[in-house]
Design goal:
By secondary structure, the chain is an alpha/beta fold. It has 34 helices and 22 strands. It folds into two domains: 335 residues, Rossmann fold; 332 residues, Rossmann fold, CATH 3.40.50.2000. The N terminus is likely disordered.
């Protein structure tokens, strides 16, 4: 018989775990090679060694993750829930090891076993959970929340195929499935105990209870199950590990064995396939009705799962709904999750039976909304017909929200019917559409822009009516980037150099980089800085040659524009300069120009024909330029295929010149500009987005600013902008445009790029490329001249690194925590 004392001892021993810190790294690697992969060193592949290394690092993460979870359960702090359709987290192994402070030990352990960490890391596939800046920003924010010990959870979708894997075939973008889960994902944990039912279609039935109150029941709906997959997000130099919860669609319909046995194989699985397509692909092509429906399904799917999950977590510890805003802060990352405003009302009113007015007050206290665009056409809207068919109850809720909102506006501004039309959540002027940005603004206590200029334009132009209605609701929080991935991880040589000179404080406080300022005047330091940049360029050139077979000269100026392909980002303006420089070289007018390599990278949305044409033109120009013996190594053009986070980790440190050339007043912020400056690239750009603040930080002389300002753009358009004036007034520009239109770069199909010519001239040049052309060319000439003075170029590059500490996402998250979420570090 076991004594009570023995029972207690037995229970204790059952919960005793040998911690990862107690196991030497080499032993852990060998253990996981056997127990996780079923291999020995004799027959293990590089992928097996990646698995062993990832599991070893994951063990360390898991201990902190469980501890963080248990501490939060005990303390029940206010939590932040970050809702985003994208989380571009990139590879996890090296980043997690770095944040935990064991990257050196893991590297040494692999070396002792005859392997190289850098080679092993290459076996990890980038998580295909995003496309561009929006998703990368969300990932940076998760990193900073964990680093700053702020209890935070990201909610998104576990895309099975992501957006697409881009390949370039005959110069054209080809979209291939990005099967990033082919080999499984060591970093995710399926949570079948966390599932929620998501409803679509059906109808709403009104029922009156015994007290005469009206209740609304959503009936005859179709449903899908959302299942949670958790990904740990470790903070830097802290015990905190936060959570990214991704939702995967699981069918409620069973596999139809009878249909299968009858030979109707497609019918046997069609219900499951239709349902589970919700979490298959990021941004399905919305040029078709079915594509638009799927996009709206995706947005509601993950938002409903998140809201249900958040309420469930709250009710585990609380029964008083008054406490909800004290325990929950929800941030809407752009308009994609804006339906959360209506979904929270649906849950509180229909499911938990709170009074409407009470529920609404709670919701407004909980939500914050981040806007990421200045272009009205980019603000998401949905047809009332589609919305009402897919989400009938939510359309009713939005109608009620809109009615009460317009009543308030009418009382505040009586008789201004035009104002009511402009701010209504339902747009009655363009075929009756639900304006998601308006819903987010009305349903949130704070709306923030992401750069000083952007936020000011939100208040004065895009949402000026709402700024009058809600004075003080609009604020600015300038974006930031995590220095862990975008400096420590991607540029270890530079970090080592800087640490040897100014210490390691900047690892956790990027503002400490200012101590580099006097070193910009030190010739020895400048030489060491240049050597590191050159090594990074060699590494990048080797990767590009492997991918494209184009051999680059690392001593040339690496001029880099990597971002989503879009007309407003003006990759085409960059290309106009490339052709101009090509013409000058061929005519003997550029003998004193610095050798230049122009690198493009980025994806075009599958349905964005003009963006795809720009990619094709870049590649056609590259073929002509790169194979012209008269040009040689003086000019090279390459398109880096399938731009993603792991590619960016090579491109940013290897860049000399950062192209940030959007039309003034169109880019909300940008974060690539911050990453390049932090890695020692000089910026050429317009006064747009965060470029304005970068200029303020680094100094006018350490950045190349060109082009029209935002007010000048507006004035030129108002005055009747005529692009033909620039075509006829600038012989170099005319020559370039005629070459594009005349088939110089497409002799097999001379009219291939007539549409680009027409867009710039016959259709008004909406983004004013031709108006900014001369100024851009002059700025590029200044770039070329400065690059030939390597001492001065290095001095200015060092000053860029020293002065961009403001753009850490830690600073950004600190401002969100203080000014929007009202949360504190758990360590305070």
């Amino acid at each position: 018989m076991t004594t009570p004392k023995a029972k207690a001892t037995s229970k204790k021993s059952a919960n005793t775990v040998i911690t990862s810190e107690q196991t030497p790294i080499v032993q852990a690697l060998q253990n996981h090679l056997v127990f996780s992969s079923g291999k020995t060193s004799d027959n293990a592949t590089r992928r097996d060694w990646y698995s062993a290394a990832a599991h070893t690092v994951r063990d360390h993460v898991m201990e902190r993750w469980v501890k963080t979870r248990d501490e939060n359960r005990a303390r029940d702090p206010k939590r932040v829930f970050y809702l985003s359709l994208e989380f571009l987290i990139g590879r996890m192994l090296s980043n997690a090891a770095l944040n935990l402070g064991i990257d050196g030990k893991v590297s040494e352990g692999l070396t002792d076993l005859g392997h190289n960490l850098e080679n092993v890391v290459e076996m990890e596939t980038d998580a295909a959970l995003g496309n561009g800046g929006l998703g990368r920003l969300a990932a940076c924010f998760l990193d900073s929340m964990a680093t700053m010990n702020i209890p935070g959870t990201g909610h998104g979708i576990r895309y099975e195929y992501g957006m697409f894997r881009q390949s370039i075939e005959k110069g054209q973008q080809v979209e291939n499935p990005d099967n990033w889960l082919r080999y499984g994902n060591i970093w995710e944990f399926q949570r079948p105990e966390h599932t929620h039912t998501i409803k679509f279609f059906g109808k709403v039935v009104e029922v009156h209870d015994k007290q005469g109150a009206t209740k609304y029941h959503w009936v005859d709906y179709e449903s899908v199950v959302a299942m949670a997959y958790d990904v740990p997000i470790p903070g830097y130099n802290t015990q905190t590990v936060n959570n990214l919860r991704l939702w995967s669609a699981k069918a409620t319909k069973e596999f139809d064995l009878r249909q299968f046995n009858d030979g109707n194989y497609e019918k046997a699985v069609e219900g499951r396939n239709d349902t589970e397509s919700i979490s298959k692909v990021l941004y399905p092509n919305d040029t078709s009705a079915s594509g638009r429906e799927l996009r709206l399904k995706q947005q509601y799917f993950f938002v409903s799962a998140a809201i249900q999950d958040i309420i469930h977590l709250f009710l585990l510890k609380n029964s008083d709904w008054d406490k909800l805003p004290d325990k929950v802060a929800i941030q809407l990352n752009d308009t994609h999750p804006a339906i959360a405003v209506a979904e929270l009302m649906h849950q509180l009113v229909d499911i938990h039976h709170l009074e409407w007015d009470y529920a609404w007050k709670l919701g407004v206290k909980i939500f914050g909304y981040t806007n990421h665009t200045l272009m009205p056409e980019a603000l998401e809207t949905w047809s009332v017909e589609l919305f009402g068919s897919l989400l009938p109850r939510h359309l009713d809720i939005i109608y009620k929200i809109n009615y009460e909102f317009l009543q308030m506006v009418n009382h505040k501004f009586p008789g201004d019917t035009d104002l009511l039309t402009r701010v209504s959540i339902i747009d009655e002027t363009h075929g009756r559409r639900v304006r998601m940005a308006h819903l987010a603004i009305v349903g949130s206590h704070t709306v923030n822009g992401v750069a000083a200029l952007h936020s000011e334009l939100l208040k004065t132009i895009l949402f000026d009516d709402f700024n009058r209605i809600y004075p003080g609701k609009f604020i600015n929080i300038t974006n930031g980037i995590t220095p862990r991935r975008w400096l420590n991880q991607c540029n270890p040589g530079l970090v080592k150099l800087m640490t040897s000179k100014i210490g390691s404080d900047f690892h956790s406080d990027l503002s400490k980089l200012s101590a580099l300022t006097p070193l910009a005047e030190n010739a020895v330091f400048r030489k060491a800085f240049r050597d590191i940049k050159h090594a990074n360029k060699v590494r990048l050139a080797e990767r590009i040659e492997k991918l494209t077979s184009v051999r680059l000269n690392p001593d040339s100026l690496f001029d880099v524009q990597i971002k989503r392909i879009h007309e407003y980002k003006r990759q085409l303006l960059n290309l106009l300069h490339v052709i101009t420089l090509y013409n000058r070289i061929r005519s003997g007018q550029a003998n004193d120009a610095a050798p230049r390599t122009v690198i493009f990278g980025g994806k075009a949305a599958p349905g964005y024909w003009m963006a795809k044409q720009i990619i094709r033109l870049i590649n056609d120009v590259a073929v002509i330029v790169n194979e012209d013996p008269a040009v040689g190594d003086r000019l090279k053009v390459v398109f880096y295929p399938n731009y993603e986070v792991s590619a960016a980790e090579l491109l940013f440190p290897g860049s000399d010149l950062s192209e940030q050339i959007s039309t003034a007043g169109t880019e909300a912020s940008g974060t690539g500009n911050m990453k390049m400056a932090l890695n020692g690239a000089l910026t050429i750009g317009t006064l747009d987005g965060a470029n304005v603040e970068i200029k303020e930080e680094v100094g006018d002389e350490n950045i190349f600013i060109f082009g029209l300002t935002t007010p000048e753009v507006a004035q030129k358009k108002a005055a009747g902008y005529n692009p033909w004036d620039y075509y006829f007034g600038n012989p170099e520009l005319r020559q370039v445009l005629d070459m594009i239109a005349g088939g110089y770069f497409s002799v097999d199909e001379p009219g291939r790029y007539q549409a680009i010519f027409d867009t710039l001239l016959h259709k008004g040049d909406h983004y004013l490329l031709l108006a900014d052309y001369a100024s851009y060319i002059a700025a590029q000439d200044a770039v070329s001249k400065l690059y030939q003075d390597q001492e001065e170029w290095s001095r200015r590059a060092i000053l860029n690194v020293a002065r961009v500490g403001k753009f850490s996402s830690d600073r950004t998250i600190g401002e969100y925590a203080k000014n929007i979420w009202k949360v504190k570090s758990t360590k305070e």
